[in-house]
Structure formats: C-alpha cells, structure tokens
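Q: Got a minute? One more chain.
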Amino acid sequence: MDALCIVTTGGTIDKIYFDDKSDFQVGEPQIGRILEELGVAFRYSVIPIIRKDSLHITDADRELVRATIAAQSSPHVLVTHGTDSMVQTARVLASLTDKTIVLTGALNPARFRGSDAEFNIGTAVGAVQCLPAGVYIAMNGRIWDPLKVRKNVDANRFEAAD
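A: Always. Here it is, folded:
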C-alpha cells in the first residue's frame, strides 16, 4: 500500500474535556498519536483540515473535504469524522470513484478509557487496504455502505437504514 492518507475533520474522536468550561471542545487530531502508540508498520500522513463537531460541518466544509481528498495522489484515504453527520459527508465523497475512502470516528473521545476510537480506527485501516474503490463507513466493527446505514442516536450505534 502507498502511504495511507488520513484526513481529519474533528468530531468526538478528537474531543477533550475542559474542567473549567464544563464542556467538550474539539482538540488536536488523535489518530497520529494512536497509530504511533500502536506501532503500525505502514506509512501514513495526516492532513487536518477541519476541527469541528460534525453537527457544525457545512456543505462548504464537505466540499473542502472532497477537494482535499481529490487532490491527494494516494488511492487509500481514511477520514476521521464526527458520527452525527458522517453519512452525509460520505455521500458527498461518492463522486470520487478512483479512491478507496473509509470514514470512521468514535462515540466516545479517544482520550477516554474504554473509547471505541482505537477499535474503529483499526477496522478502518484494515478496510481501506482491502476494499475496492468506493466510499465506506467503518463503525461498531462493521463496514457500511453510506447509502444503507444510519446512526441510531438512542442506541448510540450505527445500524442498517430502513
């Protein structure tokens, strides 16, 4: 595999807790730290382009993500993204037919013990290497077609869309 291109957009995976503010803020991308700590045996580059909760990602932001990915030479792209609007962004990326693009995120911040971030990143890294060109979502140990998945907010997981 060529060097894996990783595009970060923020979301829960990168959130940090500020005691003095009693809320969460999107911090620095965590994926590089996670991959370094895991000692992965492949090359990668991280391109942080947005640092937002996915509820605040706009159509213009999605176009920036699409254009950034289109400009990369790597045929393998992993996107970290907030889970609330991950499906919408994946659908915008469907126009990029010459790359394998996998979006992933976390339902709990990567800095938290018991976060699903590392598991989801691992699933996404495996998927981006094995799947044919197209756009996919890697969440909850499954690979999803963005046209056939939704986030179940009440159950806090991804599931097949009706």
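A: The longest strand covers residues 44-52.
Q: Perfect, thanks.
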